[in-house]
Amino acid sequence: MEILGIDVGGSGIKAAIVNTETGKMISKRNRIITPQPATPQAIATIIKQQAEHFEWTGAIGCGFPAVVQNGIVKTASNIDKTNIDTNIEVLISQITGLPAFVLNDADAAGLAEATFGSGREKQGLILMITIGTGIGTALIHNGIVIPNSEFGHIFMSNGKIAERYAADAVRTQKALSWQTWGKRFSKYLQMLELYLSPDLILLGGGVSSDFDLFSKYLKLKTPVIPAKLKNKAGIIGAAFYAKHKIEHEKIS
Ligand code: BGC
45 CA to middle of ligand 1, Å? Predict the structure, then answer.
């Protein structure tokens, strides 16, 4: 099945057509800047532009940077607050005229990595962390995603919210060296390791391409590896989620 996968991020809204059997993109990735303010209407309008760009008439799977329960947005850390309580699935469907399925962006990335990427055929608890404008987390146990974990919002011992202390946006805004940022990120991972005892930690988001520059500062007992699908994971996972919903809920 082919699905248009969309990854809504704090700075860009990315899309590509995905073959959900192989987990591969079968089109080029198209990126449009996230509108500011990132209201639900403005985001859905960009998603319509993405559908038009690909001349797409099928289903859409969308990763969204917030808690999403049954299609409804529940939080808004890096998007406009008017998203809260919006049924984003219904809104995207109305604006595009296409069936849409929405899940948390980090859960989408985790789902893709667990199915097609670095977590493939790995048993146990995988903690996937996406590092970008914010910090997203996904928990995958034996291939099943436990949705809407928000470990980017835990408090560090210095009282700061983790994503305001260790996101990639903080590294670039404060011009932190890889060493300084790597040590911060290590402290963050150590807390998660203590609370969750994962079997494997996967790091995704743009910064995962720079893994070699900061991995030496990560002091953990748990194996930590960069996510394989890099910045494609969110798009692929969103498409895969939509396929799952269509097949299991017999939606056509
Ligand atoms: C949001 C998460 C999201 C993450 C990455 C956080 O601010 O609360 O839901 O997964 O950013 O976009």
Answer: 21
